[in-house]
Amino acid sequence: MNFKWIKTTTLIATLIITSINASAQDLLARQAPIDRKLKAVDSLALQKQLKAELSKYPACNLYPTWDNERVHVYGDATTVPDTFRIDLTGFCMPTPSTRITSQFGPRWRRMHNGLDVKVNIGDTIVSAFDGKVRVVKYERKGYGKYVVIRHENGLETIYGHLSKQLVKTDQVVKAGQPIGLGGNTGRSTGPHLHFETRFVGIALNPVLMFDFPHQDVTADSYLFVKKKAPQYYRVKKGDCLSKIATRNGVSVNTLCKLNHITRNTILRPGQVLKCS
Questions:
Q1: How distant, in Å, are the alpha carbons of 97, 98, 246 from that of 215?
Q2: The pTM is what?
Protein backbone atom coordinates (compact mmCIF):
# COMPACT_ATOMS: atom_id res chain seq x y z
CA MET A 1 0.00 0.00 0.00
CA ASN A 2 1.12 3.62 -0.68
CA PHE A 3 1.06 5.90 2.35
CA LYS A 4 1.90 9.01 0.29
CA TRP A 5 -1.49 10.63 0.87
CA ILE A 6 -1.47 9.82 4.57
CA LYS A 7 2.06 11.13 5.00
CA THR A 8 1.10 14.37 3.17
CA THR A 9 -1.94 14.83 5.39
CA THR A 10 0.15 14.07 8.47
CA LEU A 11 2.68 16.69 7.33
CA ILE A 12 -0.07 19.31 7.08
CA ALA A 13 -1.24 18.41 10.57
CA THR A 14 2.33 18.62 11.82
CA LEU A 15 2.73 22.15 10.41
CA ILE A 16 -0.45 23.20 12.18
CA ILE A 17 0.73 21.63 15.41
CA THR A 18 4.10 23.40 15.16
CA SER A 19 2.46 26.80 14.83
CA ILE A 20 0.40 26.13 17.94
CA ASN A 21 3.04 24.60 20.16
CA ALA A 22 6.78 24.85 19.64
CA SER A 23 7.39 21.57 21.47
CA ALA A 24 5.19 19.53 19.12
CA GLN A 25 8.15 18.62 16.92
CA ASP A 26 9.82 17.05 19.95
CA LEU A 27 6.67 15.04 20.61
CA LEU A 28 6.76 13.70 17.07
CA ALA A 29 10.41 12.79 17.40
CA ARG A 30 9.60 10.77 20.52
CA GLN A 31 6.81 8.94 18.66
CA ALA A 32 4.07 10.57 20.77
CA PRO A 33 0.68 8.85 20.58
CA ILE A 34 -1.37 10.00 17.61
CA ASP A 35 -4.22 11.13 19.89
CA ARG A 36 -1.94 13.72 21.47
CA LYS A 37 -1.01 15.05 18.04
CA LEU A 38 -4.64 15.28 16.98
CA LYS A 39 -5.67 17.22 20.10
CA ALA A 40 -3.35 20.02 19.01
CA VAL A 41 -5.02 20.34 15.61
CA ASP A 42 -7.73 23.02 15.47
CA SER A 43 -9.56 21.63 12.46
CA LEU A 44 -12.14 19.09 13.61
CA ALA A 45 -12.60 17.95 10.03
CA LEU A 46 -8.86 17.33 9.69
CA GLN A 47 -8.85 15.38 12.94
CA LYS A 48 -11.61 13.12 11.70
CA GLN A 49 -9.94 12.66 8.33
CA LEU A 50 -6.61 11.76 9.92
CA LYS A 51 -8.22 9.28 12.29
CA ALA A 52 -10.13 7.65 9.46
CA GLU A 53 -7.04 7.24 7.29
CA LEU A 54 -4.76 6.10 10.09
CA SER A 55 -7.30 3.51 11.22
CA LYS A 56 -6.96 1.85 7.81
CA TYR A 57 -3.28 1.11 8.41
CA PRO A 58 -2.37 0.62 12.09
CA ALA A 59 0.93 2.22 13.18
CA CYS A 60 1.58 3.60 9.69
CA ASN A 61 3.89 6.21 11.26
CA LEU A 62 6.25 3.31 12.06
CA TYR A 63 5.82 0.99 9.07
CA PRO A 64 6.70 1.99 5.49
CA THR A 65 4.60 -0.67 3.76
CA TRP A 66 1.51 -2.85 4.01
CA ASP A 67 2.40 -6.23 2.51
CA ASN A 68 -0.05 -9.16 2.39
CA GLU A 69 2.49 -11.74 1.18
CA ARG A 70 5.30 -12.12 3.70
CA VAL A 71 6.05 -11.91 7.41
CA HIS A 72 9.60 -10.59 7.12
CA VAL A 73 9.35 -7.55 4.82
CA TYR A 74 11.27 -4.93 6.80
CA GLY A 75 14.90 -4.51 5.82
CA ASP A 76 17.65 -1.98 6.38
CA ALA A 77 15.59 0.77 4.72
CA THR A 78 13.14 0.73 7.62
CA THR A 79 13.79 3.33 10.31
CA VAL A 80 13.66 1.76 13.76
CA PRO A 81 13.25 4.28 16.61
CA ASP A 82 15.94 4.24 19.28
CA THR A 83 13.25 3.89 21.92
CA PHE A 84 9.51 3.35 21.76
CA ARG A 85 6.99 2.68 24.51
CA ILE A 86 4.58 -0.08 23.50
CA ASP A 87 1.14 0.18 25.07
CA LEU A 88 0.06 -3.23 26.39
CA THR A 89 -3.35 -2.26 27.74
CA GLY A 90 -6.27 -3.98 26.08
CA PHE A 91 -4.30 -7.22 25.68
CA CYS A 92 -6.07 -10.57 25.45
CA MET A 93 -4.25 -13.89 25.79
CA PRO A 94 -4.33 -15.71 22.42
CA THR A 95 -5.15 -18.96 24.24
CA PRO A 96 -6.16 -19.88 27.80
CA SER A 97 -3.40 -22.52 27.77
CA THR A 98 -0.56 -21.74 30.19
CA ARG A 99 1.87 -24.49 29.21
CA ILE A 100 4.95 -23.23 27.35
CA THR A 101 6.63 -26.07 25.46
CA SER A 102 9.48 -24.08 23.87
CA GLN A 103 10.92 -20.74 24.87
CA PHE A 104 12.18 -17.82 22.78
CA GLY A 105 15.86 -18.09 21.85
CA PRO A 106 18.41 -20.35 20.11
CA ARG A 107 17.10 -23.83 19.39
CA TRP A 108 18.50 -26.62 17.22
CA ARG A 109 21.24 -24.31 15.88
CA ARG A 110 18.70 -21.72 14.74
CA MET A 111 16.81 -18.88 16.33
CA HIS A 112 13.34 -19.62 17.68
CA ASN A 113 11.65 -16.22 17.42
CA GLY A 114 8.55 -16.94 19.47
CA LEU A 115 6.93 -19.02 22.19
CA ASP A 116 5.36 -22.42 21.63
CA VAL A 117 2.20 -22.82 23.70
CA LYS A 118 0.59 -26.24 24.07
CA VAL A 119 -2.88 -26.35 22.50
CA ASN A 120 -5.09 -29.07 21.07
CA ILE A 121 -6.15 -29.28 17.46
CA GLY A 122 -9.31 -27.21 17.11
CA ASP A 123 -8.72 -24.98 20.16
CA THR A 124 -9.81 -21.39 19.54
CA ILE A 125 -6.97 -18.88 19.03
CA VAL A 126 -7.82 -15.19 19.41
CA SER A 127 -6.22 -11.86 18.52
CA ALA A 128 -3.99 -10.41 21.22
CA PHE A 129 -4.97 -6.77 20.53
CA ASP A 130 -7.24 -4.75 18.31
CA GLY A 131 -5.67 -4.59 14.88
CA LYS A 132 -5.79 -5.41 11.19
CA VAL A 133 -4.89 -8.71 9.53
CA ARG A 134 -1.88 -8.28 7.27
CA VAL A 135 -1.06 -11.86 6.21
CA VAL A 136 -3.03 -15.10 5.99
CA LYS A 137 -0.78 -17.74 4.42
CA TYR A 138 0.49 -21.32 4.49
CA GLU A 139 4.16 -22.42 4.72
CA ARG A 140 4.71 -26.14 4.44
CA LYS A 141 8.24 -25.99 5.89
CA GLY A 142 7.65 -23.12 8.27
CA TYR A 143 4.70 -21.59 10.07
CA GLY A 144 2.16 -23.91 8.47
CA LYS A 145 -1.17 -22.10 8.37
CA TYR A 146 -0.54 -18.74 10.01
CA VAL A 147 -1.94 -15.26 10.57
CA VAL A 148 -0.09 -11.94 11.02
CA ILE A 149 -1.90 -9.01 12.66
CA ARG A 150 -0.59 -5.46 12.93
CA HIS A 151 -1.65 -3.41 15.94
CA GLU A 152 -1.85 0.32 16.60
CA ASN A 153 0.63 0.01 19.50
CA GLY A 154 3.36 -0.84 16.97
CA LEU A 155 3.46 -4.59 17.48
CA GLU A 156 2.77 -7.28 14.94
CA THR A 157 1.66 -10.65 16.33
CA ILE A 158 2.07 -13.96 14.49
CA TYR A 159 0.04 -17.10 15.11
CA GLY A 160 1.53 -20.23 13.56
CA HIS A 161 0.77 -23.95 12.98
CA LEU A 162 -3.00 -23.36 12.89
CA SER A 163 -5.35 -26.04 11.61
CA LYS A 164 -7.67 -23.38 10.21
CA GLN A 165 -7.58 -19.61 9.67
CA LEU A 166 -10.81 -17.77 10.51
CA VAL A 167 -9.91 -14.32 9.16
CA LYS A 168 -8.95 -12.76 5.82
CA THR A 169 -6.28 -10.24 4.85
CA ASP A 170 -7.17 -6.59 5.52
CA GLN A 171 -9.84 -7.61 8.02
CA VAL A 172 -10.13 -5.44 11.13
CA VAL A 173 -10.23 -7.50 14.33
CA LYS A 174 -10.76 -6.83 18.01
CA ALA A 175 -8.77 -8.17 20.96
CA GLY A 176 -10.20 -11.55 21.90
CA GLN A 177 -11.77 -12.16 18.49
CA PRO A 178 -11.19 -15.72 17.14
CA ILE A 179 -8.67 -15.66 14.29
CA GLY A 180 -7.83 -19.36 13.96
CA LEU A 181 -7.90 -22.87 15.39
CA GLY A 182 -5.00 -24.66 17.05
CA GLY A 183 -3.21 -27.20 14.89
CA ASN A 184 -0.08 -29.04 13.86
CA THR A 185 0.62 -27.71 10.36
CA GLY A 186 3.98 -26.79 8.83
CA ARG A 187 7.28 -27.41 10.64
CA SER A 188 5.74 -28.84 13.80
CA THR A 189 6.22 -31.99 15.88
CA GLY A 190 2.92 -31.76 17.75
CA PRO A 191 -0.15 -29.56 18.24
CA HIS A 192 0.85 -26.13 19.55
CA LEU A 193 0.55 -22.40 18.91
CA HIS A 194 3.68 -20.64 17.76
CA PHE A 195 3.21 -17.07 19.03
CA GLU A 196 5.53 -14.24 17.95
CA THR A 197 5.65 -10.56 18.85
CA ARG A 198 7.56 -8.29 16.46
CA PHE A 199 8.27 -4.57 16.42
CA VAL A 200 9.07 -3.18 12.95
CA GLY A 201 10.30 -6.66 12.02
CA ILE A 202 12.41 -7.19 15.16
CA ALA A 203 11.43 -10.30 17.11
CA LEU A 204 10.84 -9.57 20.81
CA ASN A 205 10.61 -12.19 23.53
CA PRO A 206 6.89 -12.43 24.39
CA VAL A 207 7.63 -13.25 28.05
CA LEU A 208 9.00 -9.74 28.50
CA MET A 209 5.48 -8.45 27.89
CA PHE A 210 3.06 -11.31 28.58
CA ASP A 211 2.81 -13.64 31.56
CA PHE A 212 1.26 -16.81 30.15
CA PRO A 213 1.18 -18.76 33.45
CA HIS A 214 -0.89 -15.97 35.05
CA GLN A 215 -2.68 -14.95 31.83
CA ASP A 216 -1.78 -11.29 32.16
CA VAL A 217 0.63 -8.62 30.93
CA THR A 218 3.85 -7.97 32.83
CA ALA A 219 3.08 -4.22 32.92
CA ASP A 220 0.85 -1.66 31.23
CA SER A 221 3.61 -0.86 28.73
CA TYR A 222 6.95 -2.13 27.48
CA LEU A 223 9.88 0.11 26.59
CA PHE A 224 11.57 -1.01 23.39
CA VAL A 225 15.24 0.00 23.20
CA LYS A 226 17.08 -0.43 19.93
CA LYS A 227 20.20 -2.50 20.29
CA LYS A 228 23.35 -0.91 18.96
CA ALA A 229 25.54 -2.84 16.56
CA PRO A 230 28.51 -4.49 18.32
CA GLN A 231 31.79 -2.57 18.11
CA TYR A 232 35.08 -4.36 17.37
CA TYR A 233 38.76 -3.43 17.56
CA ARG A 234 41.69 -5.02 15.73
CA VAL A 235 44.73 -5.32 18.01
CA LYS A 236 47.83 -3.46 16.85
CA LYS A 237 51.48 -3.97 17.80
CA GLY A 238 52.13 -2.47 21.24
CA ASP A 239 48.47 -2.52 22.31
CA CYS A 240 47.47 -3.58 25.82
CA LEU A 241 44.06 -4.07 27.38
CA SER A 242 44.10 -0.78 29.29
CA LYS A 243 45.03 1.17 26.16
CA ILE A 244 42.31 -0.53 24.09
CA ALA A 245 39.74 -0.03 26.86
CA THR A 246 40.51 3.71 27.10
CA ARG A 247 40.39 4.15 23.32
CA ASN A 248 36.96 2.51 23.12
CA GLY A 249 35.44 4.02 26.23
CA VAL A 250 34.99 0.78 28.17
CA SER A 251 36.58 -0.80 31.23
CA VAL A 252 39.18 -3.56 31.15
CA ASN A 253 36.75 -5.80 33.03
CA THR A 254 34.14 -5.23 30.32
CA LEU A 255 36.66 -6.12 27.59
CA CYS A 256 37.59 -9.31 29.41
CA LYS A 257 33.96 -10.30 29.92
CA LEU A 258 32.96 -9.60 26.29
CA ASN A 259 35.89 -11.61 24.91
CA HIS A 260 36.10 -14.37 27.54
CA ILE A 261 39.70 -13.49 28.39
CA THR A 262 41.60 -12.42 31.53
CA ARG A 263 43.85 -9.46 32.31
CA ASN A 264 46.83 -11.77 31.78
CA THR A 265 45.80 -12.93 28.30
CA ILE A 266 48.53 -12.22 25.75
CA LEU A 267 47.16 -10.14 22.85
CA ARG A 268 48.29 -10.85 19.29
CA PRO A 269 48.50 -8.19 16.54
CA GLY A 270 45.56 -8.72 14.20
CA GLN A 271 43.39 -10.25 16.92
CA VAL A 272 39.83 -8.85 16.91
CA LEU A 273 38.28 -7.87 20.23
CA LYS A 274 34.61 -7.12 20.85
CA CYS A 275 34.22 -3.75 22.59
CA SER A 276 30.45 -3.48 23.01
A1: 9, 7, 47
A2: 0.70
Helix (H, G, I), strand (E, B) or coil at 224: strand
CA dihedral 163, 164, 170, 171 (to 10 degrees): -130
Q: Hey, what's the torsion of the CAs at 221, 77, 2, 44, to 10 degrees?
A: 40
**Exposure string over 223-237, b if 16+ CB within 10 A, otherwise e:** ebeeeeeeeebebee
Please tell me the distance from the alpha carbon of residue 32 to that of residue 68, in angstroms, as a whole number.
27
pLDDT tens-digit series, residues 62-97: 998 899 999 988 876 678 999 999 999 999 999 999
Cα 18 to Cα 4, 33, 40, 60: the distances in Å are: 21, 16, 9, 21
In this predicted structure, the answer to whether residue 2 has a pLDDT above a threshold of 70 is no
> Measured in whole angstroms, how far is the alpha carbon of residue 218 from the centre of its chain?
16
